[in-house]
Amino acid sequence: MANTILTPREIRRYRRQIMLPGIGIAGQEKLKQAAVIVVGAGGLGSPVLQYLAAAGVGRIGIAEFDIVDEENLQRQVLYGSGDVGKLKAIIARERLEHLNSMVKIKILNLPVNEKNALKIFENYDVVVDATDNYRTRYVINDACVLLGKPMVHGSLYKYEAQVSVFNYNGGPTYRCYNPSLKGSGSKDPSADETGITGVLAGLAGTLMAGEVLKIITGTGEVLSGKVLLFNTYDCNFTVIKVNNMPANHIIRPLGDNN
């Protein structure tokens, strides 16, 4: 261990993780050197951010511009009653720095869109889609394809959730799974209209964090080319295959693909 970049404190803190086959000191060093950006710090982003910070991911970006709403506290577990009305990004950074002072947290108090996605994502190794709307999701996907970055995705609907990894080592993109919605009449499912359980968000976000750790450390089988669907109402888990379509790797300027 004399040649490791890990400090004695880090080795102590992450020892249980370092003990795992496939991670070891080398894997923990990869985590320390990694940079991950999470787009959205709500129901999905809350558990993702906490577990990435706890695992020792060296640099974490938070792209979130919303404020804490009391109606969302049952699933957005980074925040408490005293945070209502405050900016999520600022509170999230405070919580994560308290959780693990050895990681660096950068906040971007702005919406990710066609104009800034490429510039934001270029400095990160993995992009996490913890959003709740299709338009932003397609922007994230297209920017990741253009930059060659893996996109860890999660979404929620009532008792149902899905988790997958897109654009990983040339694998299927989000558009291979869910083509353009232009002319389809589809709209974003709203938790305000449909309801949602906090436990579902916690499970999905935790699984998403697990995919990020596998990507960084090279340990385990990444959910690339597959989508994990699960329903907490009847505890049903299903994995479906996603075909890789070369045409969906050809991206026009952001905003022109929908």
Write up this protein.
There is one protein chain. By secondary structure, this protein is of the alpha/beta class. It has one domain: 3-Layer(aba) Sandwich (Rossmann fold), CATH 3.40.50. Helices cover 35% and strands 17% of the residues. The chain has an eight-stranded mixed β-sheet, sandwiched between helices. Strand 7 and strand 8 form a beta hairpin. Helix 4 runs parallel beside helix 5 and helix 4 runs parallel beside helix 10. The protein is globular, with a radius of gyration of 18 Å. It starts with 7 loop residues before the first helix and ends in a 17-residue tail after the last strand.
CATH superfamily: NAD(P)-binding Rossmann-like Domain
Number of separate domains: 1
Determine the strand fraction and express it as a percent band. 15-25%
In CATH, what is the class?
Answer: Alpha Beta
At CATH's second level, what is the architecture?
3-Layer(aba) Sandwich
Overall geometry:
globular
* Order of neighbouring strands in the sheet with most strands: 3-2-1-4-5-6-7-8
Question: Radius of gyration, rounded?
Answer: 18 Å
Order of helices and strands: HHHEHEHEHEHEEHHHEE
Helix count equals 10
Percent of residues in helices: 25-40%
Largest sheet: 8 strands, mixed
Poorly predicted runs: none
| N- to C-terminal distance | 50 Å
The residue-averaged pLDDT reads 93
Q: What is the tally of beta strands?
A: 8
Structural class: alpha/beta
